[in-house]
Amino acid sequence: MDVHETAPQLINWDLAAATAARLAPPGPQLSAAEAASAVASLRRLADEAVPHVHRITRLDAAEDLRDSQVLVVDRGSWAKANTQGFAVMLGPVLTQLVEKKASELTPSAARVGGAITGAQLGTVLAFLSSKVLGQYEPYAALAPGSSLPEAGRLLLVAPNIVQIERELSVEPDDFRLWVCLHEQTHRVQFAAAPWLREHILEQVGKLSDSLLGNMDSLMERATAAAKSLRDRPWAGIGQPVPSRGAILDLLQDPAEKAAISHLTAIMSLLEGHATVVMDAVDADVVPSVKTIRQRYTARSENRGVLEAFVRRVLGLDAKMRQYTDGAKFVTGVVDAVGMEGFNRIWESPENLPTEEEIHAPAAWVARMG
């Protein structure tokens, strides 16, 4: 059996993308002219956001982002791009798993399992596809086994942006520029730290190695986590929940915890830095920014019970905490040593904060001397 031919079958990526496209809820009703106008507006505002990001972050990498790859997509295309990104990130893991289970895994079993897993992943992506406004995807343009390109892709999910701006009754161009500021900041981060994509892949690999080495106990933990979800009284939103989401409750081994702690710190840094950039703009850049912030925050706090449950299971509430924790870290460091001092963070992996330092900016400042 050819391991490299079988590995991709463990997750049917095409089926995942097709399932997500089929199950994704419909977006807002737009005429052809309205859709074309929204796409053109988002492309223009993505370009306009670049000099503002450059001014706020003081990262010269921002100067090279004009006219670079920005894709305005629908929900199905966003899901497909994410399956491509997952395929790159998980390709080595799937290969290892096939090698580990070679004696037990036949090609037909891999195909059946891949179809099941692909359908499950597609269902999750369908839910997420209506929630994401934009995303910098550093891996989506790659085929498994290829080298990393110089830059990833920025995805702006047009139907979601239009839907939210309508729900909030805010000025469309103001809201779209506000969103673009956040997403363009993510592009600047990876441009300023070209080593970051490989570093994240390495950390995912370390976590995967540990999980694969403890496959039997992982299955036991998965069963226990499922029972916990079944028995938990979810009707009350205020019920105690796992700190990072039910899925991440499975991580118990010290190596697993160390890997996820480092990845959590990286994600908190990236999301917090982008949030600080969004918060740094004033009415001169986005005239209705105060109204947008107030209404967007209020909307985020009023989720239904079902959505709150799904978000907790997937660990999405943890992602929201990353925005807050990371922003406090970035603000604390900038207040202490200025933006130039903060920007040392992009020089090397050694300069990245630990999860503990995310909650104690002064500790990072002290470590950096």
Give the CA-CA distance, first to last residue: 54 Å
The largest sheet has its strands arranged as: 1-3-2
Please give the largest β-sheet. 3 strands, mixed
Q: Label the overall shape.
A: globular
What's the domain count? 2
- H/I helix tally: 15
Strand and helix order: HHHEHHEEHHHHHHHHHH
Helix content: 55-70%
Low-confidence stretches: 1-6, 142-149, 232-247
Itemize the secondary structure elements and their pairings.
Blueprint: H1 3-6, H2 13-23, H3 32-57, E1 70-73, H4 75-100, H5 107-129, E2 134-137, E3 153-157, H6 158-168, H7 172-192, H8 196-213, H9 215-231, H10 254-280, H11 289-300, H12 305-314, H13 316-342, H14 355-358, H15 361-367
Parallel strand pairs: 1-3
Antiparallel strand pairs: 2-3
Helix pairs in contact: 2-4, 2-5, 3-7, 4-5, 4-8, 6-7, 7-10, 8-10, 10-13, 13-15
Describe the structure.
- This protein is mainly α and 369 residues long.
- It is 66% helix and 4% strand.
- The protein is built from 15 helices and 3 strands.
- The protein has helices at 3-6, 13-23, 32-57, 75-100, 107-129, 158-168, 172-192, 196-213, 215-231, 254-280, 289-300, 305-314, 316-342, 355-358, 361-367; strands spanning 70-73, 134-137, 153-157.
- Strands 1-3-2 form a 3-stranded mixed β-sheet, sandwiched between helices.
